[in-house]
């Protein structure tokens, strides 16, 4: 199993950082399903310095968890990394992949990949401040003419980074097109530290394919885990004809558990949007989901959403059209 510096993982599958999604409830479920490491959504290093612990919620006993930081100033990122470690992070990840305008224009996210010297200063400063694992998440490069994932990975390794995640799309691509797994293979050949491949993986078959085609040490899953925490379960690597498919009852139980975690984690006023989006993902592809999804968008409050989910599942079980 993959080892990130001092951190030994129990599975080589990891949950991707996703803003607005990888909150405590989602990370908890992924871990329960067998996920080896979960990442928080990206956290502003400046914000963490200003607001401290209230800005970053790590659950009690939530291990292992990696806190992903974004920022562009070495001293700020190093201090934020130290705060996150004190708050319980088992690993700190530097975001070098976010293509959002508001992040890039501050010199953070994928913009860092254009300035290797700046990256070096940041990583040296962060490495000095934390003893936990330090990792980076990069893209292929800025655009098709500036693919420098290998250069940045070698540099990161030289600064004492413990692992590298590669999401092989450029900043220009954002989330469009297919991830170019060749870039993951190139990085893997170039460094000795573990390389985690990421991009367009949502089934056990694709997990296996990414391991085989790139030689990567771990696979990070983002969108493929939405409404599908089972993707981390070792059970799913068995063929579905061996009784490994997810039954409707299991799906129902998972949704229940997820909703109760959400209820414990969020204030009342935030429950509706949180529940709605997860119900949407859990029911995508099920019979009559279009009707159910348009119904969801009109409902407010945990009780109403829960009722709708129950009657939807009952109607599927009775094989009746959704009311
Ligand atoms: C809604 C959303 C939010 C994301 N937020 C982050 C983030 O905070 N930090 C980060 O490094 N990547 C972020 N990503 C990128 C994912 O971590 C991942 O690299 C990308 O989705 C490709 O992997 P996938 O095909 O498994 O989804 C986000 C992606 C999505 C869809």
Structural commentary:
- The structure is a single chain.
- The protein is an alpha/beta fold and 323 residues long.
- The protein folds into 2 domains: 3-233, Aldolase class I (TIM Barrel, Alpha-Beta Barrel); 248-317, Non-ribosomal Peptide Synthetase Peptidyl Carrier Protein, Chain A (Orthogonal Bundle).
- It has 12 helices and 11 strands.
- The protein has helices at residues 24-32, 45-51, 74-86, 101-104, 116-129, 149-158, 181-190, 204-214, 248-265, 268-283, 289-296, 302-317, and strands at residues 3-4, 7-8, 13-15, 37-39, 43-44, 65-70, 91-96, 133-141, 163-170, 195-198, 218-221.
- Helix 3 (74-86) links the parallel strand 6 (65-70) and strand 7 (91-96).
- Helix 3 (74-86) packs parallel to helix 5 (116-129) and helix 10 runs antiparallel to helix 11 (289-296).
- The radius of gyration is 20 Å and the shape is globular.
- The structure holds flavin mononucleotide (FMN).
- Flavin mononucleotide (FMN) is lined by residues 16-19, 21, 41-42, 68, 95, 97-98, 137, 167, 198-201, 221-224.
What descriptors fit this protein?
single chain, 323 residues, alpha/beta, TIM Barrel, Non-ribosomal Peptide Synthetase Peptidyl Carrier Protein, Chain A, 12 helices, globular, binds flavin mononucleotide
């Amino acid at each position: 199993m993959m080892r990130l510096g001092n951190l030994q993982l129990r599975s080589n599958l990891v949950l991707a950082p996703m803003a607005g999604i990888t909150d405590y409830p989602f990370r908890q479920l992924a871990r329960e399903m067998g996920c080896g490491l979960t990442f928080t959504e990206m956290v502003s290093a400046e914000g963490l310095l200003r607001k401290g612990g209230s800005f970053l919620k790590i659950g009690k006993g939530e291990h292992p968890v990696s806190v992903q930081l974004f920022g562009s100033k070495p001293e700020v990122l190093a201090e934020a990394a130290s705060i996150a470690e004190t708050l319980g992070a088992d690993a700190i990840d530097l975001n070098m992949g976010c293509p959002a305008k508001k992040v890039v224009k501050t010199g953070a996210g994928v913009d860092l990949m254009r300035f290797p010297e700046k990256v070096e200063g940041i990583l040296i400063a962060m490495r000095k401040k934390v003893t936990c694992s330090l990792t980076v998440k990069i893209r292929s490069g800025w655009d098709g003419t500036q693919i420098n994932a290998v250069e940045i990975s070698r540099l990161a390794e030289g600064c004492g980074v413990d692992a590298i995640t590669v999401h092989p799309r450029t900043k220009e691509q954002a989330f469009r097109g297919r991830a170019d797994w060749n870039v993951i293979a190139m990085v893997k050949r170039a460094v000795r530290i573990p390389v985690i491949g990421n991009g367009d993986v949502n089934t056990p078959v694709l997990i296996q394919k990414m391991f085989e085609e790139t030689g990567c040490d771990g696979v990070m899953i983002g969108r493929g885990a939405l409404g599908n925490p089972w993707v981390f379960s070792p059970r799913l690597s068995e063929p579905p004809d061996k009784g490994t498919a997810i039954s409707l009852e299991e799906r129902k139980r998972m949704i229940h558990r997820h909703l109760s975690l959400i209820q414990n984690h969020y204030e009342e006023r935030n429950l509706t949007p949180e529940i709605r989006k997860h119900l949407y993902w859990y029911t995508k592809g099920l019979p009559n989901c279009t009707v159910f999804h348009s119904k969801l968008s009109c409902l407010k409050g945990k009780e109403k959403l829960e009722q709708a989910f129950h009657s939807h599942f009952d109607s599927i079980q009775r094989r009746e059209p959704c009311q």
